[in-house]
């Protein structure tokens, strides 16, 4: 696979995945095409030696795996998260004011709010409804075109706006959807009913009961820079890592770029697993989040015997892939001088003495060794000693199942903005190392 081909696939995935539900649906389609079998948590699993499978929970988290031929090799795990900071539509969102019809929104995660103003916004997500037979159903919708806006207040009416005035999320973020006449009324659920009928013309939608909907910027991902050095898009944190993990898994099972008959991998391969969890941006505490039981539930069904499962986990390794803070040239002093990752200089090993990241010297050394075998660059990040450190699913997974873990990520700028920026080389570099990682049978570190 070549760099531009990989990046074009990444940008297509980002564009087609405005919500975690859409991201999981797109990954499911790719896995089915590659010969993976869909599993249902509500029925008994019959797993074949060297088979490959996937299972989704809540439609927003996904675990895909191949069954290795030797449990003593452990599992090569790659983890990411499907959610991104955004604005979500409230349950009763209708606001009518001065002839405008607006929607009330709630901030999801640690979003940078300023960049949401004056953007062409659309709405996508999951809607649950009753059909004409009074049966409950859920479906995905995406308006795709720009239908909403949060206009800024003119500077003439807000002279202090450039002096650090805070944004009031309750008052200033409701989006404008349309205009109404003096005696005109409108229901957002009726709008959704119409959208469902357009999306699923064969289903008679009787009543919309509830929804989980995100606003998103319709501007597509693209290269930027005089020489296309950079890529910009929404939701790079962290759909970027989901795509890298998916691509490296497909590479490991020999199904990259197409299907493979039989749903099985060649022998002499370690087991590989992709774990894409929802709700990381709000703490991961949900049935489908990394703090929940989803991963352990899958491991228990994959290895029902507790002794075998413990041995497998002991021989396994998780790479938690979540984007890293690249050095911003206008704010270089926000980084430790010796640990400031540069765009296009390689993936970033994330280290924190207080276990905000799960990396230790052995997991870091394994990654460094794998990169050097491929002659690929890598960097390291430690937050300034006078600043607080963020975290990832890495420490959560490590503590939940006891697996040795590495935290790593592609360096990016504008993290948690509506439009984020990475180097055009770094995602492909991480993909190549993770594909190599997935095919390594022995990751043992001898202690002398």
Automatic annotation (TrEMBL):
GO MF term list: aminopeptidase activity
EC number: 3.4.11.-
Cofactor(s) annotated in UniProt: Zn(2+)
Keywords associated with the record: Aminopeptidase, Hydrolase, Metal-binding, Metalloprotease, Protease, Zinc
Family: Belongs to the peptidase M18 family.
UniProt xrefs under PANTHER family: ASPARTYL AMINOPEPTIDASE (PTHR28570)
Name assigned to this protein: M18 family aminopeptidase
Species lineage: Bacteria, Pseudomonadati, Pseudomonadota, Gammaproteobacteria, Alteromonadales
